[in-house]
Each structure stands twice: as structure tokens, then as C-alpha cells.
Design brief:
heterodimer; A: alpha+beta; five-stranded mixed sheet; five-stranded antiparallel sheet
């Protein structure tokens, strides 16, 4: 935050686009600014409404050279924009250098990326030294706009000023560590369900929307992180995840694509199509996956059926799909997530969890999904 | 007689470095020729401060990777210090 941590003393703020760049249609500028504000709206209790005249909290303008604030712009390149910390008058305002070529894509200077950054200043964030953060001062033209999201650093910064958004009980929208009381209450919600669960180098990862809980057997308390803070390219709201321990790789699935990571490293050559694994074209997504490291088989669950992949041969086994309920008696509901540990398979369906013994071929315990969190 | 320039006066990037440190890292604008004190402890410290903030190796020198980042487009708000 800025020295003295200036912030708005209200949660509803007004903004006005005072003038426009000739580089883009007015409607495009309107929609880009709205999208940039939404970035911050999603992680705070702040809301915004647009004024068409008069003094707004955040006045947005495009200008060249000296433009009335004694901090002149410098022509094309270098300084793209600047903005002022929350407060009266010029404070809160964002100025964009109209000597830049503003674009909606990456052919010029992307207005969305710069606007989201400047509006971060308008809300009270100073620059971040975290190179992954939106509030890092240097413009990154390589940012993948389709997968843009705030870093953990940005979210923690803005939430240190305004707190988290009002949360629904099942959605952990507060990306912070377990030391904060908010995710504590979310992770212990009896309604908690998961998108995917996997092991990773002896730890357990429980994915939910943009976040995951990381549980180590060495520490009793799980910690909550943004997925993007570990793996910036991975999608949120993933479908499935599993670890192949002898390859030291975790595979992540969403829709008809999958990614591979080794620890913090995202592997090159991904995402790949799930059909390269041998799943038929009729399968558009998988619900869950789990790998048996002893038998070196990976199971892919799709609705009420499953396929089995031979990790040694790297091919799908013949004779599949088979009915889940026939080979995993007691696992009758659609599987949201699964992982293997201590010789058992753990299947998650909504807020329920089934412990399944693959040797005895029976469910040995029916649990709540969040039993791993010691609630 | 024309004034002879001092060794290093024409080293490229020095003016940019001076402006960058003044604008974004609070280097005092004391009007003195920056070039004469570029190896002085306060300037080296400022360069290191900048390199640390930008995630670069803290050499304290104007090396090519530091220069590359300084030439990239950026936000005009200072990175450190007070903001007016």
C-alpha cells in the first residue's frame, strides 16, 4: 500500500471516463474499464457505478505530455500511465498516456492490463516487487489475456485494505493462509465440496475454484493458496487431478484438455487433448481421476463409467469403459474428485467422502469431504 | 580550449539510469553530474535497491539485464518512497 495506507472509507465508489482515446471505439473503452474494475470488485466488498458527468471518486482520462498535474507524460513508450492513491480531488484518478497505441489485444499496449494496474493504485495499492503481480510496475506484454487473474500478492494487498468479498459458505473466495479466520470457517463448512484432489510429493492438494488447500501430514493445519500463485497457466475450477509418483508429475484436467506440473514447474508441451490418452471423442471432460502407484494404473471417472490407463504401456486398457458401481461397489454417486493414499481410494461426491478398499472391494468408511482438515 | 570529457562520460544509459533512479527510486535530484558519482556508494545502493525490487540480480551495476528492464514500458508511479 502507499505510505500511510490511504484507502476509500466507503465500499461503493463512482468513476467517470472524462475523455477517450482515439485508438479504440468508446464502447470498447467503457467495457475495458468496467472489466478492469471487476477484477478488484471480485476480491473485495467494493462496488462501482459510472457517472456521465460531475466529479466521481475515480476520474479516468487520456492525455499527452503535460496534462495539468505537473507529472507530464513522455511520448510513446516508457511511461504508459499513472494514478493517484485514494482521496479527494486528483486523488483516486487514473491518467493514460495517449501517445501509446491502446489496443484490446496485444498488438499495441493492452488497455485492460494497464487499466487494471492503475485502478489498483486508485484503490490504494502501491507497486509490488512480486514479478507475478498485476501491481508489478513493468508492463508484461506476454500476459495471457484469456487466463488473466490477480496474483495472491495482489489479492492479499487489496484485502488488507478492504477485506474479502461477502462469501457464500461453499466458495472459498478469500485467498489467504490458514492463519486468517475466514478460510478456517470455509474449510470447515459441512457443505464443502471439491473440484479435484491429488497427492503431490507426499502432500494432499484439495482444489476448489481458483484456490487449493495444501495439507501436509507433517503439519495439522492446511493452508489455502491461489492456484495461480503456484502455477500461473493452470485453469481454475478444474475437473480432475492425479499424481504419477514415479514420473514426479501431477496431471490437471479441465474440459477436453490436460496440463502437467512437476512441483512448481509447469511442463512444456501442454495443454494436450484428453483424447491423446485414448479416451473416445464422445468424452468431453472427465469428472475425477486417481492413480494407483502400486499397480501403475490410472482410473478416469466419467459420469457412471470409468476407463483404466496403463502407466507402464502408456495406453488405455481394452475392455473399458466399465460401470463404476460394478467394480467399486458402494460408489453409486457421480464422483467429483478422487485420490489414493494409505492403500485406500478416497472418492468425493458433493460434501461426502467414501474410503474404498480396493483389495476388499468395499467402502470402509463414509466421511465428510473435509475430514482431512481436522475441523 | 574545449573541455575534455571524463572517462565514462559517454557510457550509454547513464542519463536513463539517473532519471530512472530519480523518478522511481527517490534518488535525490541535487543537480550534480550523476556520472561523476555513479560508482559512489549511495548510487550503487540505489541501483541494488532497484534491481532487488525488479527481481534482478543485485550487481549494483548498469548491466544489460537491468538496462533491458529499464527500457520496458512501465507505470509512472514511483516504485519506492513517498508518493505525492
Amino acid at each position: 500500500t502507499f505510505p500511510g495506507s490511504p484507502k476509500w472509507r466507503k465500499n461503493h465508489l463512482t468513476y467517470r471516463i472524462v475523455d477517450y482515446t482515439p485508438d479504440l471505439p468508446k464502447e470498447s473503452v467503457d467495457s475495458v474499464i468496467e472489466k478492469a474494475l471487476k477484477v478488484w470488485e471480485e476480491v473485495t466488498p467494493l462496488t462501482f457505478s459510472r457517472l456521465s458527468e460531475g466529479e466521481a471518486d475515480i476520474m479516468i482520462s487520456f492525455a499527452v505530455g503535460e496534462h495539468g498535474d505537473f507529472v507530464p507524460f513522455d511520448g510513446p513508450g516508457t511511461v504508459l500511465a499513472h494514478a493517484y492513491a485514494p482521496g479527494l480531488g486528483i486523488n483516486g484518478d487514473a491518467h493514460f498516456d495517449d501517445d501509446e497505441q491502446w489496443t484490446e489485444d496485444r498488438t499495441g499496449t493492452n488497455l485492460f492490463l494497464v487499466a487494471a494496474h492503475e485502478l489498483g493504485h486508485s484503490l490504494g495499492l502501491f507497486h509490488s516487487a512480486n514479478t507475478e503481480a498485476l501491481m508489478y510496475p513493468v508492463y508484461k506484454s506476454s500476459t495471457d489475456l484469456t487466463r488473466f487473474r490477480l496474483s495472491q500478492d495482489d489479492v492479499e494487498g487489496i484485502q488488507s485494505l478492504y477485506g474479502p468479498p461477502p462469501a457464500s459458505p461453499d466458495v472459498p473466495v478469500v485467498p489467504t493462509t490458514s492463519s486468517s479466520p475466514e478460510p478456517e470457517s470455509l474449510m470447515c463448512s459441512p457443505a464443502l465440496s471439491f473440484d479435484a484432489v491429488t497427492t503431490l510429493r507426499g502432500e494432499f492438494l484439495f482444489f476448489k475454484n481458483r484456490h487449493f488447500w495444501r495439507k501436509s501430514l507433517r503439519s495439522p493445519e492446511p493452508s489455502l493458496y491461489l492456484i495461480s500463485s503456484f502455477w500461473p497457466s493452470l485453469p481454475s475450477s478444474m475437473d480432475a487431478a492425479y499424481e504419477v509418483t514415479n514420473r514426479d508429475t501431477v496431471f490437471i484436467f479441465k474440459g477436453n484438455q490436460f496440463w502437467a506440473v512437476r512441483g512448481h514447474e509447469e511442463q512444456a508441451g501442454y495443454p494436450k487433448s484428453i483424447h491423446t490418452l485414448g479416451l473416445p471423442e464422445t468424452v468431453g471432460k472427465i469428472d475425477a481421476a486417481v492413480s494407483d502407484k502400486v499397480k501403475k494404473k490410472t482410473y478416469f471417472f466419467v459420469e457412471d463409467k470409468y476407463w483404466r490407463f496403463d502407466e507402464k504401456k502408456q495406453s488405455m486398457e481394452p475392455g473399458f469403459p466399465r460401470k463404476i458401481a460394478e467394480d467399486f461397489p458402494g460408489v453409486d454417486s457421480k464422483v467429483d474428485a478422487a485420490f489414493a493414499a494409505f492403500g485406500f481410494f478416497y472418492f468425493f461426491s458433493g460434501s461426502s467422502q467414501l474410503e474404498f478398499d480396493p483389495n476388499a472391494k468395499k467402502v470402509t468408511h463414509v466421511l465428510k469431504s473435509n475430514t482431512w482438515f481436522n475441523c | 580550449y574545449p573541455l575534455h570529457s571524463r572517462a565514462g562520460d559517454e557510457e550509454p544509459g547513464m542519463e536513463l539510469l539517473q532519471k530512472y533512479l530519480e523518478n522511481y527510486y527517490g534518488l535525490a535530484k541535487d543537480g550534480k553530474q550523476f556520472i561523476r558519482k555513479k560508482n559512489s556508494s549511495p548510487v550503487v545502493k540505489k541501483i541494488q535497491e532497484m534491481q532487488k525490487f525488479l527481481g534482478l540480480e543485485m550487481t549494483g551495476k548498469l548491466d544489460s539485464s537491468t538496462m533491458d528492464v529499464m527500457l520496458k514500458p512501465r507505470c509512472g508511479v514511483p516504485d519506492v518512497g513517498g508518493f505525492t
